[in-house]
Amino acid sequence: MPNFIGATGSYFRLMWHSKNLRLYFEFYKSTLAINLFISLIWIFNSLGTFFVSFCTFGLLAAFIFKEYYRKNDYFFYYNTHISRNSLFLFCFITNLFVCLIFKILSYEILP
User: pTM for the whole thing?
Assistant: First the structure.
């Protein structure tokens, strides 16, 4: 198995390969339902707490659910040289971008 830590840039080239990118998004979509369910509970307080929950608590709940009930799914990603940590990092960064976009849009729409 290649060492991606020492190689400069090769880890990111492998991560953004089109086949791997589709797999990352498949994992993200599998965590999205649980994340939205947990986060929608917090939307009754305010929109800001929804964004915080979407990026942190909801995502953490989705990861815990995947750890306990869908642990065998990681073997599929591991066989394509995608680590669990990189899956988590991708979901977190994607959630940050989604929250940032919605936060910008909500400032433009709401006074």
Answer: 0.74
